[in-house]
Write a structure and sequence with these properties.
The protein is of the alpha+beta class. It folds into three domains: 148 residues, Penicillin-binding protein 2a (Domain 2), CATH 3.90.1310; 339 residues, DD-peptidase/beta-lactamase superfamily (Beta-lactamase); 99 residues, Trypsin Inhibitor V, Chain A (2-Layer Sandwich). The protein is built from 21 helices and 33 strands. Strands 2, 3, 4, 5, 10, 21 and 22 form a seven-stranded mixed β-sheet that branches. Strands 13-12-11-26-25-24 form a six-stranded antiparallel β-sheet, sandwiched between helices. Strands 27-29-30-28 form a four-stranded mixed β-sheet, with helices on one face. It is flat. GO terms for molecular function: carboxypeptidase activity; penicillin binding.
Length: 698
Amino acid sequence: MGKNIKKSIVTRVRVAFLCVCLFAGAIFYKVVRIQYLEGTKWRQIAKESRIIYQPVYATRGNIFSDNESILATSLPFYRVAFDATICDDKVFNKGIDSLAFLLSRFYKDKSPEGYRRKIKNARAEKRRYLRLHPMQINYQEKKMMASWPIFRAGKNKGGVIFEKVDKRFRPFGSLAQRTIGRMTEDGNGSGLEFTYNRQLAGKDGEALFERMAGGNKPIYDGTEIKPLPGYDIKTTIDINLQDVAENALYKALVLNNAQYGCVILMEVKTGAIKAIANLGKAGEGVYVENYNYAVGDHGRTEPGSTFKLASMMALFEDTDLTPEDTVDTGHGRQVFGGVSMGEAHGGGFGKISISQVFEKSSNVGTAKLIETHFGKNPEKYIAYLQQFGIDKPLGFQMHGEAKPYIRKTTDRGWSRSTLSRMAIGYGLKISPLQTLAFYNAVANNGIKVKPMIVKEIRKADAVVDSFETETLGRICSEETAKQLRSIMEAVVEKGTGKQVKNLNYKVAGKTGTSWKTKNGKYIKDYSTSFAGYFPADNPKYSCIIIIDTPKKGRIYGGDVAAPVFRELADKAYVRDLAIHKPFAALITPDKRVLPPVKAGQQEELTLICNRIGISSHPVADQEWIKADSQAHSYAWKPVPLQVGRVPDVSGMTLRDALFLLGNQGLKVKKVGLGRVQKQSLEPGSPIQKGSTIILTLS
């Protein structure tokens, strides 16, 4: 019994061993067959599975300011990889230690021995792609690395691979950040980058890449399709005014602990936006550009008193009233449509002119005028707003423009008090840009132009598309525009906008303060504003300022928003010499007294005398002269110049003296300031080589 069991076990073991041997033999046969009989076939399949087509991304176009300064560009960065199979042994062995040391010192993540081992292992394994470090390097660093041992032999002999990666860069940092915008990898974005992505992006190319451990290595076999770089965009932004706008806005937001603010500065005739700034509160004293309050839905609010200009325009267009006509505003409070309305600035103005209604920003006066003339036919008032283009988007050149909301008599929310509230800027919502376009039309004699922020789209130096000023039509008569300009000037001269008044140029504008809403109810938070243009007598720029929810006790547009307008207007005026008035001469020259002309070039001195109306008697064929005054005129005497002789430079400016003495080879030392009073070397004396002359100035 025991022998039978032992025999059975031995038999089973032998059978199992035989099966293992047969299985091992089958595996060996299969390996040999795949390796030698079918090797070529499988190697080709493996190679084909590793070869893929991948896009080669185009270089994104630039965004420029109005003077060709770069607002956004794509800079080349690189990742460094290495093909360990290319470099020959002599070059590799000679340079590996130095290369490892340099890599270690540059990346600071491994020791020289660590990099040496990493590269040598890749070479032993015949790896054709080894990414040395994930960090991206700039162009200057790439140039430096290209000179290192092994790498200096280049891609084909040294094996170094510099993989180009474009990164968006803004030379002016956060300046106009929200206006420039961005693009995300999922195709979303904001600002100009998003709006003009199709033009900026260009057209991607395509090339073969080989899949390898650590990444994909490009294969340049001649089949690659080169990418087409994107077009450039030239904007209307003035970087200097943009900087002023952002700084002035930031200071006002911090000073008033406000929630957010925006600024738009625009050319009256062209509609070209020269500055547009948006800042929102991100923390105590911290403001960033996250939303485009100036253009988009986040800034679409009830405008408040700045909208009174539209009410006045409708009034002057529909009636024969003038700014001198009067209205009784009573004691500062009146009921309209069953709802009591009071004045924002005190009250009890009594009987005042329409111009005073506007300059004092009287709610009661404005509402009473509109109720009197449009109360029985509010549709007519709304038709005027539509005529002014306030109910329609402007078709701005940037994605995300807010759609205005103007309440109509057929709307569910219309009531008996709606018209009077619309008259003073409630019951409707428009964006700051739409308000500014309306004010700009008044400055432009009643002609409305579309705001513009992109001037050209270019391919290198060739203009692919250009954008000219687009007129949206006349929205009021010239007479109405003239009347509105006069009452806007009165606001600054003696009304709620006196904070922007100055002596150098005139400003016209309107302050605004509106209640904020929360959950459909008005709360004690305010949005303050100032909209206007300058110089008032020949408008060049229009501007709007919004400061939302100030918290430091100041709630009126004249106190909060107007100072920002003043700072930006002052800077714009100083920079634009074309709009300056000529200054009257502080001193009237007395032509009976000759000015102290001494000596110099005849052409210059004669020109000066001619300009100030003094007679002079020229000397023929003489460049340098001295003055000899004779009563009320000058007679010029020649200054003799001889080679090798010291010239007479007394009475000359230092510039002229240096020119003459330097041409004679003299070294010059000066004492004092002014014209030459004395010279140490006698005029006409011989010049010794290397001589120095001392000039005493007075």
